[in-house]
Amino acid sequence: MNDDLYRGIEDLGPDLAGAFDVTTLDREFYENPYPVFHALRRHVPVHKMTSGAWFLTRHADLDIAYHDPVLFASDKTVDFRKTMGETSLYEHHTTSLVFNDPPDHTRVRKRLAPAFTPRALRALESRVVEVVDASLDAVAEMASFDLLHDYSMKLPIELIGDMLGVPQEDRPKLSPWAVAILSGLEADLTPEQRDAAARSVDDFKDYLRWLISERERNPLSDDTGEVLSKLVGPDEDGESLTELELLHNCIFLLNAGHETTANTVTNGIDALLRFPDQLERLRADPDLIVPAIEELLRFESSVQLNNRKLTADAEIGGVAMRKDDYIWLCIGAANRDPEQFPDPDTLDIGRERNRHLAFGSGIHACAGMSLGRTEARIALLGFVQRFAEIETSGMALRHPRARFRGFIDYPVTVTA
Ligand code: HEM
User: Fold this and answer.
1) Is 227 touching ligand 1 by the criterion CB < 6 Å?
2) Is the CB of residue 100 less than 8 Å from the CB of residue 74?
3) Which residue has the higher pLDDT, 14 or 147?
4) Ligand 1 pocket residue status of 253, Cβ below 6 Å
5) 212 has a pLDDT exceeding 50
6) Residue-range domains of the chain with CATH
């Protein structure tokens, strides 16, 4: 592990910033993208890449884009066809609400609301504690284990498994499906990745069809946190989803809440190990966990990139852009913008006025942010309180993906 990663971030200069392209990244970038993000923000904050797409890095510019969903549209029906073809992967990503605009987006988000009410969250919170406690016991027994796979991943799979009412014995299927389908969003998608992702969509759809009919025969009680059966048929206003909308948005719930949450927990523990003074501060004052989670979400955002498309000619920071231009919103860069966050490369778990964009903002702001925060809070605090010594015990390599920031694996040894 490179201990200098977050110190002495240098200016790479205008030439390197100007040559940046999100489709040609290297290991150095995946390990630590922040020198590149700083250089882009400083020299070319509204950067045109060779494909003609724009890459935005300033917090203020992302704020504008998130809050003007008419000009900065989320619909990807034209763009995804280029990489995904007429596959079920394309059907999935163009049907999930995050890649739709009003009025469809508004209707689907409203129909999914029962999954995110405070009541639904309360039903899940006791499960979060239960799953975290069981996972802590299991890894304490192992002493040396993989933080990501043996600990952080367990929680979101169980929680979304509960939301969808997936029987325990079927839960191991969920993670490989989610990883394959989300990898289908990478800018440098290979034909093999596309086909594997499309097969996962087909398998998941078949599985959900079976699960919905199973729930009709054998309903589960409210205290299990199951919401899938509540999403079938019309709501009290008579709004309903088509069968494909229901299936793809349930698949999306797993994809949206799985790696994002697991990576938030692993990224968070990793950042605390790099800033031991902040780890000690949290152990000494556990009430700091609430601002600490916000700071860790800012500092190592597990979703680093979002996309939009211009529906009309526009200007950002004095740069003219054209209708139909494709836009990359770089959350990872915006969350390190010194105009918004004093001393942005320092982790400060008590940071105030932390307007980070880790959950996006505006009409597409993360629908599961309360659940994600609850999971991260309980899993992260539980871990650092349970183990007095936490040491990395091997190479923790970053996953070579620009959109989702996390590790391939993360070996640790702990002592209670
Ligand atoms: C810490 C963990 C999480 C992070 C960092 C995260 C991040 C994000 C971001 C950045 C977006 C905005 C996408 C855009 O504007 O294009 C988003 C949307 C979304 N997230 Fe999350 N998310 C997390 C956890 C979850 C969980 C646990 C769920 C549900 C189980 C979830 C469900 C959703 C949904 C449904 C949307 C789409 C909202 C819409 O388009 O209206 N997320 N998330």
Assistant:
1) no
2) yes
3) 147
4) yes
5) yes
6) 13-415 (1.10.630.10)
